[in-house]
Amino acid sequence: MLSLVAILMSHMETRLTKKRQAILDALKSKKAALSAAEVHALVPTVDLATIYRNLEFFASQKLIKKLQLGTQEARFEFQHEPHHHAVCGQCEKVIHFTAPDQKIIELLGIKNFYVEELEVTVRGNHKSHV
Ligand SMILES: [Zn+2]
Ligand SMILES: [Zn+2]
User: Which residues contact 90 (CB under 8 A, 6 or more apart)?
Assistant: First the structure.
Protein backbone atom coordinates (compact mmCIF):
# COMPACT_ATOMS: atom_id res chain seq x y z
CA MET A 1 0.00 0.00 0.00
CA LEU A 2 1.32 3.42 -0.90
CA SER A 3 1.76 5.78 1.98
CA LEU A 4 0.59 9.36 1.66
CA VAL A 5 4.22 10.50 1.71
CA ALA A 6 5.06 8.20 -1.19
CA ILE A 7 2.10 9.52 -3.17
CA LEU A 8 3.16 13.10 -2.48
CA MET A 9 6.74 12.30 -3.39
CA SER A 10 5.83 10.73 -6.70
CA HIS A 11 3.53 13.68 -7.42
CA MET A 12 6.42 16.06 -6.77
CA GLU A 13 8.73 14.00 -8.94
CA THR A 14 6.21 14.06 -11.77
CA ARG A 15 5.99 17.82 -11.51
CA LEU A 16 9.75 18.07 -11.48
CA THR A 17 10.03 15.83 -14.52
CA LYS A 18 7.47 17.95 -16.36
CA LYS A 19 9.43 21.10 -15.56
CA ARG A 20 12.64 19.46 -16.68
CA GLN A 21 11.03 18.28 -19.88
CA ALA A 22 9.60 21.75 -20.57
CA ILE A 23 13.05 23.31 -20.15
CA LEU A 24 14.68 20.72 -22.38
CA ASP A 25 11.95 21.02 -25.02
CA ALA A 26 12.32 24.81 -25.08
CA LEU A 27 16.04 24.47 -25.66
CA LYS A 28 15.55 21.79 -28.32
CA SER A 29 13.07 23.99 -30.18
CA LYS A 30 15.62 26.79 -30.55
CA LYS A 31 18.68 26.14 -32.62
CA ALA A 32 20.65 28.61 -30.59
CA ALA A 33 22.69 29.04 -27.45
CA LEU A 34 20.47 30.65 -24.84
CA SER A 35 21.13 32.21 -21.46
CA ALA A 36 19.10 30.99 -18.47
CA ALA A 37 17.07 34.21 -18.71
CA GLU A 38 16.27 33.53 -22.36
CA VAL A 39 15.13 30.00 -21.49
CA HIS A 40 13.04 31.52 -18.70
CA ALA A 41 11.33 33.75 -21.26
CA LEU A 42 10.35 30.58 -23.16
CA VAL A 43 9.21 28.74 -20.03
CA PRO A 44 7.86 31.55 -17.83
CA THR A 45 5.96 29.15 -15.54
CA VAL A 46 9.25 27.83 -14.14
CA ASP A 47 11.23 30.22 -11.95
CA LEU A 48 14.68 31.33 -13.03
CA ALA A 49 16.57 29.57 -10.20
CA THR A 50 14.95 26.25 -11.11
CA ILE A 51 15.77 26.80 -14.77
CA TYR A 52 19.38 27.58 -13.98
CA ARG A 53 19.71 24.55 -11.69
CA ASN A 54 18.23 22.24 -14.32
CA LEU A 55 20.37 23.66 -17.12
CA GLU A 56 23.45 22.98 -15.00
CA PHE A 57 22.13 19.47 -14.33
CA PHE A 58 21.53 18.78 -18.04
CA ALA A 59 25.01 20.06 -18.84
CA SER A 60 26.54 17.77 -16.20
CA GLN A 61 24.66 14.85 -17.76
CA LYS A 62 25.97 15.94 -21.19
CA LEU A 63 22.44 16.33 -22.53
CA ILE A 64 23.20 19.93 -23.43
CA LYS A 65 26.30 22.06 -23.82
CA LYS A 66 27.23 24.88 -21.51
CA LEU A 67 29.07 27.53 -23.48
CA GLN A 68 31.10 30.37 -22.06
CA LEU A 69 31.67 32.26 -25.26
CA GLY A 70 32.07 35.88 -24.39
CA THR A 71 32.10 38.21 -21.48
CA GLN A 72 28.42 37.65 -20.89
CA GLU A 73 26.74 34.93 -18.86
CA ALA A 74 26.92 31.25 -19.79
CA ARG A 75 24.70 30.05 -22.59
CA PHE A 76 23.16 26.64 -22.96
CA GLU A 77 22.54 24.79 -26.17
CA PHE A 78 20.95 21.57 -27.27
CA GLN A 79 23.20 20.43 -30.08
CA HIS A 80 21.24 18.58 -32.73
CA GLU A 81 24.63 17.99 -34.29
CA PRO A 82 28.07 18.65 -32.79
CA HIS A 83 29.49 21.91 -34.09
CA HIS A 84 31.76 24.85 -33.38
CA HIS A 85 31.23 28.51 -32.58
CA ALA A 86 32.50 31.88 -33.63
CA VAL A 87 31.59 34.77 -31.39
CA CYS A 88 31.67 38.43 -32.33
CA GLY A 89 33.37 40.70 -29.82
CA GLN A 90 31.31 43.69 -30.98
CA CYS A 91 27.73 42.43 -31.01
CA GLU A 92 28.34 39.12 -29.18
CA LYS A 93 26.29 37.25 -31.80
CA VAL A 94 27.24 33.60 -32.18
CA ILE A 95 27.86 31.83 -35.47
CA HIS A 96 27.35 28.07 -35.36
CA PHE A 97 29.40 26.16 -37.89
CA THR A 98 30.57 22.68 -38.69
CA ALA A 99 33.99 21.77 -39.99
CA PRO A 100 35.63 18.56 -41.16
CA ASP A 101 36.76 17.38 -37.73
CA GLN A 102 39.06 14.71 -39.12
CA LYS A 103 41.03 17.40 -40.97
CA ILE A 104 41.28 19.55 -37.85
CA ILE A 105 42.54 16.58 -35.86
CA GLU A 106 45.17 15.92 -38.53
CA LEU A 107 46.25 19.56 -38.46
CA LEU A 108 46.52 19.56 -34.67
CA GLY A 109 49.10 16.83 -35.00
CA ILE A 110 48.71 15.55 -31.45
CA LYS A 111 50.44 12.21 -31.22
CA ASN A 112 49.23 9.21 -29.28
CA PHE A 113 45.98 10.82 -28.43
CA TYR A 114 42.46 9.71 -29.12
CA VAL A 115 40.20 12.75 -29.61
CA GLU A 116 36.78 12.15 -28.08
CA GLU A 117 35.44 15.62 -28.42
CA LEU A 118 36.53 18.55 -30.50
CA GLU A 119 35.14 21.98 -29.88
CA VAL A 120 36.47 25.08 -31.56
CA THR A 121 35.64 28.58 -30.33
CA VAL A 122 36.68 31.37 -32.65
CA ARG A 123 36.74 34.94 -31.38
CA GLY A 124 36.68 37.89 -33.70
CA ASN A 125 34.44 40.53 -35.21
CA HIS A 126 31.93 40.68 -38.04
CA LYS A 127 33.47 42.37 -41.05
CA SER A 128 30.45 44.68 -41.14
CA HIS A 129 31.56 46.34 -37.89
CA VAL A 130 33.94 49.10 -38.88
ZN1 LIG B 1 29.06 41.34 -34.75
ZN1 LIG C 1 25.91 26.10 -31.37
Answer: 125, 126, 129
Residue that wins the pLDDT comparison between 2 and 23 = 23
What is the pLDDT, as a whole number, of residue 16? 67
Residue 69 banded pLDDT, cuts 50, 70, 90: confident
CATH class of the 4-77 domain in this structure: mainly alpha
Distance, CA 70 to ligand 1 centroid (Å)?
Answer: 12
Query: Is residue 68 pLDDT above 70, yes or no?
Result: yes
Say how far apart CA 51 and CA 62 lie, in whole Å. Answer: 16
Q: In what helix (H) or strand (E) does residue 24 lie, and over which residues does it extend? A: helix 4-29
Q: How far is the CA of 7 from the centre of ligand 2 (A)?
A: 40
Among all bound ligands, the one having the nearest atom to the CA of 86 is 2
Residue 87 has pLDDT above 70, yes or no: yes
Question: In the chain, what are the domain boundaries?
Answer: 4-77, 84-129
| Fold category of 84-129 in CATH | Dna Ligase; domain 1 (3.30.1490)
